[in-house]
Amino acid sequence: MRAAKRIKPVFTTASGKLLAPTSIPKEIAKISDADLELESYGGVVGGVPGGVPGGQLGGVIGGVIGGVLSSVPRPAPPAPVQAVRVGGHIRPPRLLRRVEPLFPEIAKLARIQGEVRIDAIIDARGQVVEMKILSGHPVLATAALQAVRQWVYEPTFLNEQPIPVVLEVTVEFRLH
Question: What average pLDDT does this structure show over 43-63?
Answer without folding.
Answer: 63
